[in-house]
Amino acid sequence: YYSRNVFTVENLRQNVFYEIRVRVGNHAGFNANGSSVFYYPHLYPTEPFHNLRVGWEQNSGILPNSLAIFWDPVPTTWFYTIEYKQGKDDDRSYQTAIGHLPSSVTNYTIHDLALDRITTYTIRVTAVNLGGRGSWATISGTPLTPPNKAVSQLFATGVQQFTVQLEWEQMPYATVYRVEVRTASSTNYSLVGDSEQNCCPWW
Q1: β-sheet bridge partners, residue 70
Q2: In this predicted model, what pLDDT tens digit does every residue of 2-40 receive, in sequence order?
Q3: What's the DSSP call for residue 75?
Q4: DSSP-derived pairing of the beta strands 163-167 and 176-181
Q5: Tell me, what DSSP letter sits at residue 176?
Q6: Closest by Cα among 109, 41, 45, 42 to 74
Q7: Sign of the C-alpha dihedral, residues 92, 83, 57, 64?
Q8: For the segment 77-86, what is each residue's pLDDT rounded down to a tens digit?
Q9: How many angstroms separate the CA atoms of 84 and 94, rounded?
Q10: How far apart are CA 124 and CA 96, in angstroms?
Q11: Residue 200 to residue 203: CA distance in whole angstroms
Q12: Neighbours of 43 (CB within 10 A)
């Protein structure tokens, strides 16, 4: 059994590859080659996440039962790790959504979440490089799912010949309404147009 020797090499520079050699010596001299290790001093990502958000941005590929997060790039990152859990309960364990997301990507969508659109999910993301893992950034949100209820209090009022005005109560979580029409003898609806919700879509 041999005890271990310890030596500290100080004042190395960040982002520089080093070969560190140890040679064995005695009163007659040192061995010729020695043993080498390679070391790359690299700080783990220390910058905080900026503008971390849950959202459905234009052209982000919205899918039912999914939840997307976006953030600004974190300097010196090699890849990101993203985890999630249902609810905000600290006792619940996180699941890994993706372990190695390339640093060039600053958004991620988690699919196949619970169908209940009022369910809250907690998502956390961290930046990783050779120096290790940075601190976790956490955000909460609810998955986007298709509405499961029809509009209520729908009324039709003739405003002039061959023209009808529709009116209905606004629905929670709605952002747009699609108006379609068919004749009494037809089996298929035709699209008339879309009407955007003009107030309070997320009550």
Answers
A1: 53, 107
A2: 688 889 988 888 778 888 999 999 898 888 888 998 887
A3: T
A4: unpaired
A5: E
A6: 45
A7: negative
A8: 989 999 998 8
A9: 5
A10: 10
A11: 6
A12: 13
